[in-house]
Amino acid sequence: SEAELDDRIRAAKRTLGERVVILGHFYQREEVVAHADYVGDSFQLANAAKAHPEAEAIVFCGVHFMAETADLLSQPEQAVILPNLAAGCSMADMADIDQVEECWEQLADVYGDMDATDAEGLVPVIPVTYMNSSAAIKGFVGRHGGIVCTSSNARTVLEWAFARGRRVLFFPDQHLGRNTAKAMGVPLEQMPMWNPNKPLGGASATELETARVILWHGFCSVHRRFTVDQIDKARAEHPGVRVIVHPECPMAVVDASDESGSTDYIRRAIEAATEPTTFAIGTEVNLVQRLAAEHPQHEIFCLDPVVCPCSTMYRIHPGYLAWVLEGLVEGEVRNRITVPRDVADPARVALERMLAAKP
Ligand code: 13P
Ligand code: SF4
User: Fold this and answer.
1) 263: annotated binding-site residue?
2) Topology classification of domain 223-302
3) Does 308 have pLDDT greater than 80?
4) CA 122 to chain centre
5) 62 in helix, strand or coil?
């Protein structure tokens, strides 16, 4: 039962003490968040993974790419554990390393030497990957002078990239790329989308010549469900409503909202509201429901009435958490995530560039 699992997790945690740190993403279910030492967005959790060198093990309640990132940023002898290995991210899977390598070769045919700088000291393209990507993709980016971003620092990271390159190749999330670049004043005509199944990504040579941001064709299946109609309905039914959405939502949805930002931005915006307010939120439902429970003075609801969970985040069932913790108690490391050395070294470079990038 739920109560039994809760007791087992508590007992194992008590036995392990400081030997283990449990990190939980905002989208995790309540029964998991209850046991996390740190709850945060993907940027905060990457920092948390780096900040606990004393722990033998980091149990990451989130999805695979987050656990890989934790492995890259933690100490080599620390074990990073993903309670359920089937907790992936469909968006991260949309940028396949072979397709990305192929894209880069085709771009080199158009732009020439990818390492050569022009009169202004800029290379033709800087690759930027969203945190929501495999370690292999982060490694690619690291090897080609690029950088990682999260939804909380995408703008800062794009500024970093534009200071070094004429253009950005942004993957996997077309929406975060488009929404961020648009907010920075990049015209839509200068953001062609790369379709890996077509020659030159389906773009013309002229489009690629004038491009500022080349977008990859990925998206988040949770956030793409939000619509402008839902926002119109929320405004009609709740005059004065504040609509806040995640930048993984399509551009029209971000444009129709009042504000957009990372999961932690959404949390802080609600926390900062001094007057009782109605909030319509466009992000994963577990976070929205938790925020609603924590802030009874406000009315907080998810824009999608049919509930909008991230099915892979949900795969971290408390039963798996109990199982990996009890493994540690018995001296057995279960479900360890290890990034191979040849990928890890360049991937870490790309991550460290992000951690050092200043607004
Ligand atoms: P953030 O936690 O960085 O806002 O990202 C949301 C997300 O989709 C994580 O998978
Ligand atoms: Fe991936 Fe979307 Fe789930 Fe985040 S919410 S883990 S981007 S599928």
Assistant:
1) yes
2) Rossmann fold (3.40.50)
3) no
4) 28
5) coil
Would you state the structure tokens that stand for residue 215, as one six-digit string?
Answer: 């977008």
Phi, psi of 252 (to 5 degrees): -60, -35
- Copy the structure tokens of residue 221: 């299946």
2-88+313-343: which CATH architecture?
A: 3-Layer(aba) Sandwich (3.40)
In the reported structure, the alpha carbon of residue 221 is separated from the centroid of ligand 2 by a whole-number distance in angstroms of: 7
Query: Is 247 among the annotated ligand-binding positions?
Result: yes
- Judge whether residue 307 has pLDDT over 80: no
pLDDT at 122 over 80: yes
Coil, strand, or helix at residue 324? helix
- Would you say the CB of residue 152 lies under 6 angstroms from ligand 2? no
Instruction: State how far Cα 326 lies from the chain centre.
Output: 29
The CATH classification number of 93-218 equals 3.40.50
Atom 10 of ligand 1, residue of closest alpha carbon? 132
Closest residue by Cα to atom 2, ligand 2, is 220
In residues, how long is the chain?
359
pLDDT digits (tens, 9 = 90+) for 57-73: 999 999 999 999 999 99
> How does strand 299-302 pair with strand 278-282?
parallel
Q: Specify the residue for token string 């309905």.
A: 233
24 pLDDT more than 80: yes
Tell me, in angstroms, the distance from the centre of ligand 1 to residue 23's CA. Answer: 14
ipTM score assigned to the predicted complex: 0.96
